[in-house]
Amino acid sequence: MLTVNEETCVGCGWCQTFCPQDALHAWGYLEIDYEKCDECLVCIEFCPTDSLSMTNS
Amino acid sequence: MKKKQEKCDVAVLGSGIGGLCSAALLANKGYETIVVEKLPIVGGRCATLKYKGYKIPTGVLGVPMVGSFKSIFDEVGAEFDVTPMTTPPKYLVGNEIIDTPESDQPDAILSRLCSDEKEIAILKRGINKARTWSPPSNEMSLQDFIYQYTRNENLAEYYNNMSDRILSTRAHEVSAKEYFQSFSGSLKDFQRVGFAPEGSIALMKALKKAIEAKGGKVITQCRAKKILVKNEIAEGVVVEGKKGETTILANNIVSNAGPKKTVALAGKEYFERGYLRELRNMVPSLQIWVTSISDRPLFDVPILYTYKTRRLVSFVCVSHVCPELAPKGKYIHYSISSPVSQIAPWNLKNEVNMHIQDLKDHLPGYNKYGEVLHVGCYWGEWPTLANAPIVGYNDIPQKTPIENLYNVGDGVAKKGGWAGGSPGCALTAKIVVDDIENRFKPGQSL
């Protein structure tokens, strides 16, 4: 499951523009639409602050 | 398994303006140069995001067409694809648009903000003295400086907008000295300004091409893991890329990762306490960049400066200069805001909402035709300015306490008018490259 570290995410919204599924939405904070996210990991590669990761839970 | 090893004259960590400008200058002078960038794209906060057919800036919008940044492109022979902006800005005071010849604009706005011409004249005399004779102390805020001449809140608002736009810091927090010195520093470079039709990232790609043409390397998705230090001298960097870990041995390391990250990469134990204290005192600034789209231009000139709003300081209808940044028949607009204080805590969601409410309340036609495409916030570890010029702020030198290890970029921008932005970052690259050139010849062994 894609997880955002709210301590380090600044809300730059880069991930939103690279997500092929349009599953991310930044508005000062990041919203993840788990219905759309297919765990392709692209957002993790492009996150400038290393705030996104995959977790098992 | 034997670890991979490479050698070069200079290893550059990070591909922002400071990093790529340094690498391009060094490669052009014959230094074997390797740039590593952790992200899949170059540019750092001078990148461009493609989204739904539009191009979104990430920190560099207006590109200075003269001065330190541009001169590096000339020197290394990199393409500088920038369309100049020829139409002067307009000003929005509350909901009233002030449309006067450019040369009259500051006066026209001040008179609109304050009816007492005598008060304006006193203030202008004080400001003129600060700009042409002697700047105020670095310990004084711009607001305190202004309050010596006037208590008029509307006049103070003019300087709030100016300092917010130039230095992403409001008048009550910004160093008055830095504010006035920026007129003879980085702002001079913005006398001629333009926009990159393919986005600012095209300029960074052009620098990458210039580096590669001189035999340098720019490796993306390659993360610096450790700066190697021996006898208090930097001697290399361990990086991790798609093909695993590599040790790059280099005579000099230039870090564009930010001064704090540089310390973390090398190890705190190599840095003096005084230096670490100065880094702790750095205040990174927040700016919010909202991209709006529409089927028609929301304003008739490229730049609108906005006064007496909650947060909004400028609104850029960039399609007037570069229609290439939006799909055919569509228009793209960028607007910028900062919080009232860069030091006091703010609620980011509220800051974004106030920015958007300003667009709706102050921009004619926004409610009917405008639509938010993207919201980008830059602060903390991915800031607008890594070292905002807040009263009493420290000038962090480009040279670190570790020999042969330099920082470039806005965290070490030169005090005295170059607090950041593309001119400030480019200048740090020039300073560092000059120093390396004085100390090392290309190919010289340690």
Task: Explain this structure.
The complex is a heterodimer of chains A (57) and B (446). With 57 residues, chain A is α+β, with helices and mostly antiparallel strands. Chain A has two helices and four strands. Chain A has a single domain, classed as 2-Layer Sandwich (Alpha-Beta Plaits), CATH 3.30.70. In chain A, β2 and β3 form a beta hairpin. Chain A starts with a strand and ends with a strand. Chain B has helices at residues 17-28, 68-76, 105-113, 117-132, 142-147, 153-167, 176-181, 186-189, 201-213, 259-266, 273-280, 348-362, 366-369, 421-439, and strands at residues 4-13, 33-36, 48-51, 54-57, 63-64, 83-84, 90-93, 96-98, 193-195, 217-219, 223-230, 233-241, 244-255, 287-294, 303-307, 312-316, 331-337, 371-378, 405-407. Chain B is of the alpha/beta class and 446 residues long. Classes of the chains: A alpha+beta (57), B alpha/beta (446). Chain A binds chain B through residues 8, 10-14, 16-18, 26-29, 45-46, 48-49, and chain B through 39-41, 49-51, 56, 58, 221, 288, 348-349, 351-352, 374-382.
Largest sheet of chain B: 7 strands, mixed
How far the N terminus sits from the C terminus of chain B, by CA atoms, comes to: 27 Å
Highest CATH level, the class of chain A: Alpha Beta
Helical region count of chain B? Answer: 14
State the major sheet of chain A: 2 strands, antiparallel
The total beta strand count of chain A reads 4
Average pLDDT figure of chain B: 95
Taken together, the total number of domains of chain A comes to 1
Overall radius of gyration of chain B: 22 Å
Structural class of chain A: alpha+beta
Estimate percent helicity of chain A.
10-25%
User: In the CATH hierarchy, what is the architecture of the largest domain in chain B at level 2?
Assistant: 3-Layer(bba) Sandwich
For CATH, the homologous superfamily of the largest domain in chain B is named as FAD/NAD(P)-binding domain
**Which structural category do the helix and sheet elements of chain B fall into?**
alpha/beta
Spatial separation of the terminal alpha carbons of chain A: 7 Å
DSSP helix fraction of chain B: 25-40%
Shape of chain A: globular
- One letter per element, helices H and strands E, the order of chain A comes to EHEEHE
CATH topology assignment of chain A: Alpha-Beta Plaits
What is the fold-level CATH name, i.e. the topology of the largest domain in chain B?
A: FAD/NAD(P)-binding domain
